[in-house]
Amino acid sequence: MTNFSSFITLSVPYIHSPHPNSRVVWHTGPGPGAVSEFRLFGCCKSTMGCGYQRAIYGHGGYAMSLLLLVLVFGHGPDPVQGASYAKITSDGTQQKPFCSWASTCVWDATTQAECAVALCKASGFKDGLFLSSDASMCEVSVTSSTVWYWVTDRDEYAQGSYHKESTITAMCFNSGVQVTSDGTQSKPVCTWNASPCVWDATTQQKCAVGLCKAGGFSTGVFVSAMHNYCEKSYSSSELWNYVTSSDRYEFKQYGYETPISALCIDDGTLVTSDGTQAKPVCTWNSAPCVWDATTQQQCATGLCKASGFGTGIFVSASHSYCTTSYSSGDIWNYITSTDSYEFKQYGYETPVTAKCYVASSGGGGSSSSWVATITGDGTEAKPLCSWSSTCVWDTTTQTECAVQMCKASGYDSGIFISAPHSMCEQSSHTGTSYYWITDQDQFKLGDLVLETPVTAKCTKSTVRITSDGTQTKPLCTWNQSPCVWDDATREKCAVGLCKAAGYSTGTFVSSLYNYCETSHTSSSTWYYITSSDQVVYGSYGLETPVTADCFSGTLPTTTTTTTTTTTTTTTTTT
Q1: Looking at residue 387, what DSSP letter applies?
Q2: Which residues is 356 bridged to in the sheet?
Q3: Sign of dihedral through CA atoms 460, 461, 464, 467?
Q4: Shortest CA distance to 121 belongs to which of 104, 153, 99, 145?
Q5: For 356, which of 27, 117, 469, 538 is 20 to 30 Å away at the CA?
């Protein structure tokens, strides 16, 4: 089946166009009974004419010729080999089209975002962020050649010679999130502490990586900054900073800092089993033993989830766990046949290496995890771990301390990473604090003598859902002017969708459109109405599907992510 519709090249005399960027195309649909279409489609930039017959009009002093433009339907090319993101600039090729228009030109943030996404999809990526353009496509032209365009008011790619267009630069990616500093620990602003201050592309990229790693991502790409951090201050209060000159995070008031925006990317983390609770080896307990691609992938997923990630991909194993043993002592195991974890000596097990990812993606109900690494600080949301009359400091107690601290922060569970010392022997905190009391199974506010902060990988299970117009997955719309499409409104759409699906709440991931400007369907369907906070059935005319991460329970107190340290297990019984 061809990926093109059929077109006939025409030279049509003396057809006047009322629009400066209009065009003519004769389109014959494929197959019997196809409808032919004749429409204005483009203009030539040569004042000498572009054919033996031409239609003339006076916009900008150019003559207009009627020419063929080929429209392309279907998916774009494969993305750049091996790239999960790339900065791309229009050059007029099919993979890097300019941005233009046919009848009506609007040059605002929405159009710029549309041009960026179209450029990136033409290059084989799934999404894109607008970075810059050479000029407004409503006002100037950058080429007189026949090139490829994204036509904004037609929502289509076209080849030809348009009257006005713009060169777009975009950050293109397959899996990424745009994150902006807000001064919290997971979204620090960027600053410096060693003279001379430098604000160049290298520094800006360091700011981006620092911001993204604070949020638990693998890396990041700089998008923009509020200002040059060598010249201005953002806040007169203490807040979280990423310090480029020392590559560290600090809660302080520096005086010269800037919020930045970055494209944050999870490229995966290589994790290898070592027999600890967070990195279990892989084993089995139900005959016959099978060691194939399916069980290897089970091992990878089990390892990654034990380390607090959402999912993983198998990379390698030391050996087949059906034939060889790895350890003669008790260690932590992930058991493929029961999908469970156990501290035991099995006799047949293997370490595996997997590439682990923060969360699995998808639409319409895929499972994922909201993950953060948290350290106790004595607050109600991050209690220290202590005891009342009997102290035991072993793997069971360490796990209990981790789980309870994570639950205090609003997460579902937690995995022990480390502690600076045994809570049975030392103290590292003075003053009244919140504690989890292990031998009383309760939280308590007080001033205890012996305690320890623990660091844990905390997880909260989520389900990613996308609107489909059903009663449990409604589209999002509005019914009260003026229409507003901002962060608060998008979050309302997410919460409305999640509650309709039976969850307690949710967080916004993405939307197909700005619901103030675009309609998704002309049919009656189910809607969540932000202005009245209700789900109704009808036909509104302006709406959008949204994607949200939904979960039961309350929103976690913090999404702080910090660098984890190597787990050290000390067992002391008093």
Answers
A1: -
A2: 269, 312
A3: negative
A4: 99
A5: 117
